[in-house]
Amino acid sequence: MSQAVATAHAEVDSYESPLTPESWSKLAMWIFLAGDAMSFGGLLAAYGALRFGSPNWPQPSHVLGIAMTGFMTFLLICSSVTMVKGLAAIQDGEPKRMCMFLGLTILGGITFLGMQAFEWTHLIHEGLGLTQNPWGASQFGTTFFMTTGFHGCHVFGGVVYLSTILIRGLRGKFSRTNYSAVETAGLYWHFVDLVWILVFTFVYLI
Amino acid sequence: MDEATRRKEHFQDEHVTTLHPNYMGVFWWLLALTILELICGTMPTGPTYPYFAKVVLLVSMAVSKAALVALYFMHLKFEVRTLGIIALTPMFLCAFFLFMLFPDSANR
Questions:
Q1: Are residues B69 and A194, on separate chains, in Cβ contact within 8 Å?
Q2: What ipTM was reported for this prediction?
Q3: What's the pLDDT tens digit per position in A181-198?
């Protein structure tokens, strides 16, 4: 797989882009994301430890809607693609195309949040809560709502963040030489996607 | 002018058309891995498909997907090494958390 991807990317300039004052926001975002990754890491590690030590942990695929969350994963992957396409558009000097892709990314995020709200409502009606679980260990509800809720807050934050970038884009604030804010917002959005890939595997599939 | 300086000037020239990674290629890999994950995750475990194999398969696919997102969508593959080190640090710490927690949860 890596060979195929590497071949596809062979034409990309492999020169390492330098850290300049213009890209300090990118460095700051990476440092923030590293801290945020540790928060998610702590949550997932706690989930693993509680599950490993609990004899009556329910099988997530029997309790949670895997097909729907699979679609939610697909949605976030698509929104990541529209985000990079938006960045590529402004790098090519096409601000209108960038705004269209940013709009699609925001739409993807809002749809994801709507589906998560639907899933939560359904599970709460089934009896799952922070301290109760009709299918076994009560910690299942605690860890499920904490982890997916923390991620959902990040998606909501990302939608707000990208909306401000879109408004600035519509006002013509970005060009092919001035797009670092779009790139930094993109880093945040891809991180949200990356974390969901791990949450989906650890909380829903394993 | 050496090769590194020439490439740097080429990179910084705003009039040069920017070459983008093959984002759609990465998307198809992510989609294929997600479908495989769904198949592996919903298949019932048993003697022919032990739970341990399921966990190893799913974690491998999730890590591969996360790496694709970080390397190509977040452009880590094309960035300075410092950013890569910043990105890798929490992963080592998370692995450390897990190893510290497992003995406790195993004794419960």
A1: yes
A2: 0.86
A3: 999 999 999 999 999 999
* Residue B40, domain extent: 3-106
CB nearest B97 (choices: A41, A53, A67): A41
**Domain definitions of chain A by residue range:** 24-205
**Chain B contact set for A59 (CB, 8 A):** none
CATH number for region A24-205: 1.20.120.80
Residues in A touching B82 (Cβ below 8 Å): 19, 27
Model pLDDT for residues B8-18, shown as the tens digit of each residue: 444 544 455 66
Selecting from A33, A44, A201 the residue whose C-beta is nearest the C-beta of B58 gives A201
Is residue A18's pLDDT more than 80? no
How many domains, in total, are found in chain B?
Answer: 1
Pick B79's closest partner by Cβ from A11, A17, A186: A17
Which stretches of chain A are assigned E, i.e. beta strand? none
Q: How many Cβ atoms from other residues are within 10 Å of residue A15's Cβ?
A: 15
- On the 0-12 / 13-18 / 19+ scale of CB atoms within 10 A, B74 is buried
CA distance A200 to A129: 19
Residue A79 near residue B27, CB atoms below 8 Å: no
